[in-house]
Fold these 3 entries.
Entry 1:
Amino acid sequence: MVTQQDVAKKAGVSFITVSRVINNNGYVKEETRQRVLDTIKKLNYYPNHIGRALHTKSVNTIGVIIPAPAHVTVHGTDYYNLLMAGIEQSTATNGFDLLLSTYRFEDPQTDYLRLYYQRKVDGLILITPNLKNPQIGDIAQQHIPCVIIGDRPENMAISYVDTDNFRGMQHLTEHLIGNGHRRIAFVKGPGNARNAGDRFDGFLQAMRQNNLPLENDWIFEGDFAPESGRQAMRKILALRDASLKLPLPSALVCANDLTALGALSEAKNADIKIPEQMALVGFDGIGATALTDPPLTTVSQPLFDIGFTASEMLLNTLKDPLRPQENKIFPVELIRRKSS
């Protein structure tokens, strides 16, 4: 295995000079610096990660903490893939590595800070965390470098990146109302997720502003997973079958696209024609929605840009720990397709 001493000998410089080049610390003539870098490349030398971390007090790694509903894999969804693609482009450009950790919505004791306290990462990106977790307060109080995606901690000095979930869902519901729908059902997202709550509130706002009734039997709990949509569709059909006086809702709004895909699957199994018998819409803008039959109307979020921006915010904080909190709210776009 090539060592730092081997690089120094081959480049004709001291061990200290190689160390200064590797750590970008201290003065080295440009000609000498380039000779050392060329030697490092030629010898295929990689600095000892542990030793470098002890010297610089940095591991050049960002931790990304991702929730995952039961029965859904992180790498199996465009939502997380696109966020991670944006984060990865930012970190790679800046010479940082990524360490990914997942948890389940159902676990209220999720340890968000383990990677940081173990010094495995320099900072954290939390995707839709449970803001009731006491560790969120620890982040602010201990000034832990962190950016939150998909939620907005109030009265805390923690940077976040989010989208206009409320207005996006309001516009989506108004789109259905504009198409003549009056009997509209809704499948929620996780109760501890701010983005899910904002979307439901946007739906309620559109219904109330248009003086449309809310049928309690048509409001369903969910967790952003396809099974939520399947269960909601089964319950809708069961209600219709149990009482012939209760018609099908003319439209079903799902809090995210995965839920809508599950509902579409169940509708096909029951020979419910979309959109002839029931319009169906989702939220997120994942790629699969363009490939379904019929293609799903959805609200598109700029997921790549969200991930990239969150990473840039965190890296800027690592460079300047006194940098003030930053917040960014991205607009969303209604994508009209044949399902509505």
Note: The first strand starts at residue 61 and ends at 68.
Entry 2:
Amino acid sequence: MRLLCFLTGLLSIKLAYFFPTFCICSRSQSDTCIDGLCLCESRIADCSQHCRGNQSLRYVPALPSNIMSLDFRCNNLHSIDNEDFFENATHITTLDLTKNKLVRIHPRAFLPLTGLSVLTLEGNDLLRYEDLRTVFGISTLEKLHMTYCNIGRFSQDVFVDLSMPHVQVLDLEGNQLERINLSRFSSQTLLKNIDLHDNRLVHVSVEAVLHVERIDVGTNSLYEFLKTCNEDGLSLFPELRSLDVSDNRIGVMPESLCLPKLEVLILSGNVLHSIENIFNGLNFPSLTELRLTGPRDACYEVMNNTFTNLPVIEMISLTNQFLFQSNLFCSAFTDCPKLSKLDLSSGGFTFPVCPTASKTRACENITFLQMWDSEIKQIPEKNFLNCFTKLTHLDLSLNQITSIPDGAFDGLMHLQWLGLDYNQIQVVSPNTFSALTLQRFEKLWLNNNPFHCSCELLWFQVLLKENPWYISYVEDYKCSNMPDTQVVQFEVAEQPCMLSKSASIVIINTLTIVVVALIIVSAVFRCRWHLRLLLYEAFRGRGETRRQLLLHGNFEFDVFVSYDSNDSLWVRIHLMPELEDRLGLRLCLHERDFIPGRDIVDNIA
């Protein structure tokens, strides 16, 4: 279910990217007002097309005096030809003209709106240059949302001589701008937020000091980081607190930066050649949050002191292809005393060993650790997680973990949230989590694992049936060996479960040893004479006497005759005369020639 929520959110983001604005009516039809032409709620009048049954409204009706915000989206106005178009709404402060296919705006159309502070013109991509100049001349505006209006198609600099002295937010997302000079906004002394996200920017120039607090130039084509220092080494952005340059093509960072108040830096999705000697207290003295997602085709090795002397840093995100040397994990974050959140998701990761005590100081304050989708296959019994003594949240979901060592998380005395969902875990033993660890949990995710439902999992079935507060999505705990069966539903016979797995293993091993021993004893007994002969040959038949006999050929007999007692008569009458008398051989017969008291083997030899 957590993955479903994640995918749902991702889908909404993708839809918003390709279809920036939706004309959707979110108000009840019972709120009709102004002779049924609009829907009113509190101080808002929604006169958009979709709140009117898809019927366009080409004029502004007389609004009640309490209405301060007019939603006039998607009415297919095409043009505002009269300077008195808004004469029935002169008191409003907020106006939304999104998706009206405007091609013309009368130069004096907004003059009656003496209190207008927020204007949205999103998706009107047919406006003329003159219309833009009209909009940029509304002196009362505090917030201007002019996204996806295709401003980049004009060769003229539309931002020359802006006349919006009170503007604080300027949203120019998705306008296909290729170049922009931020110095054009230096005269807007109250401007705090500039959004240039999702344009086609290849160059952003800065010549004068800007007192903005937030700049977003993400999802463009910038090859260089923004210029932040002037010729005297002073900051061009002395008040900047948030900077988003994600998803560009930046390969090299400047050696020195002048961003004294920057708190949030988003560098994700660039192609940095190196991340060494960049993130330190000299360049970022006020940085609290750093997002540094790497591209899929790159690989960064995080070395010792990569992130050093960042006195107020609280959160670092290093997702996608960041590799740590096992003995340098914590020492990569030196002198970062406030670092509490660390995101290492979506990259190849192997659990390093726990470093020495002197190297764990950078990790001792981390409370939130995220490593989902990091290709983790196992959790060693002794691993670096135990270095995070204050850890409260740990996410290891979407990995390839097959088993959990007993007590692997018992050393994390403050752990409250643990995500192990969407792995390959088949069995959770009663010793995986101690009773104290289970009591500490506020959330435990083990759902969507291929559990092997057997006697070993009965204790876990009982736990799920008790439905503790910290376990959610019980219906997503399913048996991989029993199709369409949930863990809370499977049944096994009692008799096979009377013995534990360890006891069964001991019994099977013992019986195996006994059977093998019996087979060996039986084989030795049946081949005892052969073995005695082999032993004799090995220890007695190769002595000095035998060696001398073989060397000089001084043998008492030529042939030893072995025969059954039933054949003794034939041996005396037929064999002996033939071999001894006629052929002259010396025969050795046990009845005649053996020396009493000696071993049979010795007599034969």
Note: Residues 501-526 form the longest helix (26 residues).
Entry 3:
Amino acid sequence: MENSKTNNMKVFATSNPADDKGTEVPVPAAYRQYIVPVNHGNHSCRRYDFGYIISQEIPVGKHTFHRFYTISDRSITLYPFHDESSIGIMYNLKGSYSCQITPYTELLQTRTGDYGPYYAPVGANEVQVGPGFSGALQILLQTDELLEGLAEVIPDMKILLNLALQHSPKGRPVALLRMNTVVRDQVNRVGLYDPKIQHHSIYFHSILYILATELTKHLHEYNRQKSDGETSREKVERVHDFILESPSLRTCTMDYLSQLAGLSEASLRKTFKQLYNQPIQNFVRTQCLQKAADLLRQDTDMRIEDIAYEVGYANQANLSNAFKAMYGMYPRDYRRSM
């Protein structure tokens, strides 16, 4: 993700934005209460044959609060469109949604009060919305100290961050959580902003950091409950999937992976070898070198020392020696052979 601009998300009624039939109109008087009176950002209202889509973007530093509402006389399919790969947190304010994070195959059913983080690739995702009045808040996160801090303490957020940094085409949700009173109060605070009283940056950043704190607590509890109900095999399979999605010698340490699994290091080593017929450390190194090979092929402008850092090697020399041992040639020669 780029650090120089905020992420943007537009909601359309067709999968191709150019084909959208909506007409830009003023926000109907009955729904003006849902527009936050901020001097920064913008809002729009588009009329369709089924009703209206109202949306508003509020930049908060590098991040973006995106509120959107639908007023519809029938069930409809909408297409939130991301102009760059995005990590977001979705809060269902009102109504029911069925979300398809392309090309994630599972359909997520959400109801009022549900929320959760996700990674969305560039392009259109699919959301089915029921008739009536529905609303959601999306917080789109840029790479900065907040997101990196979340990734340091929550393995699932580390996966999302890695997917975003790689501009992966594979979307992924993390967990479907329920808003508690603290989360609900902070989400409601977004609509209570008064520019005559509150300072824009301080006000919205305070909301963002309280929501991030609650997300951390909820995901820790979610992972604990999930781990308590899993067998040792399922825990190790989860570690295996984490390594596949986020291969790095820096993060895939035995200490970190055993915490992720909720197993002792000895149990993790033993069960992993039983399931996959190889030591877990060998699997980590192999996946890191395969990722390095992918980057050498796919990003010819990426410096080899940066690739080394990406997969967790201390320097280019260490990566080069390990790469030659596996592929029979140094990274530079491998890239030239492509």
Note: The chain has a mean pLDDT of 90.
